Q: What sequence folds into this?
């Protein structure tokens, strides 16, 4: 029987494309991995072509396309360049709103057959566009939003998934922030948690490159420096106050200025992080009490805040929570595809094994071709006949303190490297963390690295010992292991843990197990295979280029090893 292919495409910033085959993800890619431009979005032809090529099909084999952007409904033929659909009348293209795409990305990948869904971000669809796409939902929008004359966009939404369809329970909108000359002027919503976090990030770092850096900076700040709040709840809606802005009059002028005033900006980051945690907890508490359900999915860019996520679990506001690994706009294409399968076609939800790795697999021939195209006279090169020999060799190198680029199978979908496109190292050897930040990642020295731990050992090393396969929950390293895990433990004793699931990550699990045999530590330092400003490596050639340009000691390309001569 001919398979049903559904293509989901997200054309916001952090664009992506996803291909479902009979309701299950067969290939997915973020546009930045192919274009090599960080956070790339807009025109989707490159990402879509990648998916079609990886699956070995053509556009005519696709039954349905579902798309989502942010402020626009993209034209079939043209969106920031010619689109792949411009010369074809088929397949049909369906449009959905921004937060609905976030919601479906969570329910489609979740283990739940029924649940509520929270979406929190900086800016979703404008209200008029939302109503044009979903006119039947006019009555669930609070009258105060209908009466507002300024442009308003989604900022947090709460939904119910009945096993087949997602329906809204409550939707909160905000006017857009005024573009003015203050330090906190950004093209986002005025009253969103995501917008607040982005504006503070710009204030602290002087750019919008990576708002996640703020979470890494916060532990260097002192508690209690600022005693005012940024948020308040009024008539079921979360608002960002204006009063706090007058206290912050020293925006960063660039990285040198940031370093000169490090303690000041660390204190601001700590305050902002604590404000976000309080706001997220309040938002959840409010919605969950109004619409109780034992299962809750969580998506939108704010759901990547691993510290706030752990607090949610600590406070037991939700009984069972699933946090979507690609929670930011890179996950919109996932939601589009699942909307097409579940809602538009009315097909049953399919089981998932929990994997987030949906990139194409590169053949031995492609790897050989990439190696042959570079100069390798300064490298030791070998191909291993068995996986066991390869694993033992790599575990030995890691135990010696070597840094290792690890390229295996299809790449991860989402912001975290989980053992397919990773830089790996010993978690406890002195100065290795600073060496990787300075000479391999070429990034700020305050930024932490994550521990990847065997799932069955997580409770031995970390206080909560939670299952955390996607690196979006923080834990605390137990005091007795602080020295052994110094390279993966942050300044405040926290660690953004990855528990390794051998069901969908078997080679990585075997590597950490082999390292444990040699070192008696069931943990590796794991960070993404890239450097600052570069999207995660996708191809063997890109991995080789990073290997040549950085201080990485060893590069593993499937069963091939390249090692720099001493």
A:
């Amino acid at each position: 029987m001919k398979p049903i292919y559904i293509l989901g495409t997200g054309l916001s910033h952090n664009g992506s494309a996803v291909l479902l085959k009979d309701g299950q993800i067969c290939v997915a890619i973020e546009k930045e991995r192919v274009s090599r431009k960080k956070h790339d979005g807009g025109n989707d032809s490159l990402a879509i072509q990648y998916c079609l090529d990886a699956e070995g099909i053509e556009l005519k084999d696709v039954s349905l396309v579902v798309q989502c952007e942010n402020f626009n409904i993209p034209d079939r033929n043209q969106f920031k360049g010619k689109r792949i659909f411009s010369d074809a009348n088929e397949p049909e293209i369906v449009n959905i709103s921004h937060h609905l795409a976030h919601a479906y990305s969570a329910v489609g990948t979740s283990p739940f057959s029924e649940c509520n869904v929270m979406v929190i971000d900086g800016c979703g669809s404008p209200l008029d566009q939302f109503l044009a796409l979903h006119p039947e939902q006019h009555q669930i929008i609070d009258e105060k939003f209908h009466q507002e004359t300024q442009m308003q966009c989604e900022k947090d939404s709460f939904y119910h998934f009945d096993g087949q369809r997602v329906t809204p329970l409550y939707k909160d909108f905000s006017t857009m922030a005024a573009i003015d000359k203050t330090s906190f002027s950004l093209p986002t919503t005025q009253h969103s948690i995501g917008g607040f976090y982005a504006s503070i990030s710009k204030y602290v770092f002087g750019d919008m490159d990576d708002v996640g850096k703020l979470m890494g900076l916060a532990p260097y700040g002192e508690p209690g420096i600022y005693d005012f709040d940024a948020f308040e709840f009024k008539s079921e809606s979360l608002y960002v106050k204006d009063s706090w802005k007058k206290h912050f009059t020293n925006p960063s002028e660039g990285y040198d200025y940031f370093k000169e005033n490090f303690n000041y900006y660390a204190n601001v980051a700590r305050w902002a992080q604590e404000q976000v945690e309080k706001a997220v907890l309040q938002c959840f508490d409010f919605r969950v009490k109004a619409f109780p359900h034992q299962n809750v999915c969580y998506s939108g860019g704010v759901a990547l805040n691993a510290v706030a996520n752990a607090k949610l679990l600590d406070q037991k506001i939700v009984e069972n929570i699933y946090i979507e690994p690609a929670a930011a706009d890179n996950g919109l294409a996932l939601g589009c595809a699942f909307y097409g399968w579940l809602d538009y076609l009315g097909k049953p939800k399919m089981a998932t094994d929990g994997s987030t790795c949906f990139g194409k697999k590169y053949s031995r021939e492609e790897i050989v071709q990439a190696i042959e195209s570079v100069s390798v006279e300064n490298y030791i090169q070998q191909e291993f006949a068995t996986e066991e020999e390869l694993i033992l060799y790599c575990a030995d190198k890691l135990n010696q303190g070597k840094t290792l680029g690890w390229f295996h199978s299809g790449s991860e979908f989402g912001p975290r490297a989980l053992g397919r496109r990773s830089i790996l190292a010993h978690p406890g050897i002195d100065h290795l963390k600073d060496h990787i930040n300075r000479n391999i990642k070429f990034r700020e020295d305050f930024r932490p690295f994550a521990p990847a731990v065997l799932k069955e050992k997580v409770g031995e090393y970390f206080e909560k010992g939670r299952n955390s396969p996607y690196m979006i929950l923080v834990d605390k390293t137990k005091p007795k292991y602080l020295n052994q895990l110094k390279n993966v433990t942050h300044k405040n004793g926290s660690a953004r843990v990855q528990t390794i699931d051998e069901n969908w990550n078997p080679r990585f699990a075997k590597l950490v197990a082999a390292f444990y045999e040699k070192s008696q530590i069931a943990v590796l330092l794991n960070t993404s295979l890239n450097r600052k400003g570069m999207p995660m490596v996708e191809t063997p050639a890109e991995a080789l280029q990073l290997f040549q340009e950085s201080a990485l000691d060893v590069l593993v390309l499937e069963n091939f090893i390249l090692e720099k001569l001493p």
